[in-house]
Amino acid sequence: MLRNGLGKTLRFLGYTVQYGCIAHCAFEYLGGIVVCSGPSMEPTIQNSDIVFSENLSRHFYCIRKGDIVIVKSPNDPKSNICKRVIGLEGDKVCTSNPSDFLKSHSYVPKGHVWLEGDNLRNSTDSRCYGPVPYGLIRGRICFKIWPLNDFGFLRASPNGHRFLDD
């Protein structure tokens, strides 16, 4: 009786560890569902929108200008932020705010990306904390899940002119 109970318990623990490993790999390498908060990506992503983020792009270095990514915050490593990639390493980017009279430019250093929110007037992004290391990217947002009336692939940036190739 004790042997039977111990066998069932060990079998249950074995399955739990196996499924835990599978779940970890799925969320780490394939992707997951993310609830976005804050106004920085409006109008593309509204507060409380639910999106699907895939993680394979970051592992294969397939992040491109215009992609919306989930990134570990450079200011608070315990939180994630959602921003659009404006520049990749070696790109010349505008580092000033839209309202600035004199525009300043800089080059994105090796191994970094330049991130900005679509709502330029209400976004804390690379214009505040500088280029972000590529290693902080957690995933790339593929499409919006919720609200259902906005289900599908994300629309182009309202600030597309900020990352067009020269």
UniProtKB/TrEMBL annotation:
State its Enzyme Commission number(s): 3.4.21.-
Biological process, per Gene Ontology: protein processing involved in protein targeting to mitochondrion; signal peptide processing
**Domain named Peptidase S26: which ranges?**
16-97, 103-146
Molecular-function GO terms, alphabetical: serine-type endopeptidase activity
Q: What highest taxon heads this organism's lineage?
A: Eukaryota
Xref: Pfam families: Peptidase_S26
Q: Which residues form a coiled coil?
A: none
List the keywords (alphabetical).
Answer: Hydrolase, Membrane, Mitochondrion, Mitochondrion inner membrane, Protease
Q: Which SUPFAM superfamilies match?
A: LexA/Signal peptidase
Q: Where is the active site?
A: S40, K83
> Mind telling me which InterPro entries this protein's record contains?
LexA/Signal_pep-like_sf, Mito_IMP1_subunit, Pept_S26A_signal_pept_1, Peptidase_S26
**Claim: DNA damage is one of the keywords in the record:** no
- The broad enzyme category this protein falls into is hydrolase
Q: Name one GO cellular component term.
A: mitochondrial inner membrane peptidase complex
What are the subcellular locations of this protein?
Answer: Mitochondrion inner membrane
Q: How does it assemble?
A: Heterodimer of 2 subunits, IMMPL1 and IMMPL2.
According to its UniProt record, which protein family does this protein belong to? Answer: Belongs to the peptidase S26 family. IMP1 subfamily.
> Know the name of this protein?
Mitochondrial inner membrane protease subunit
| Native organism | Otus sunia (Oriental scops-owl)
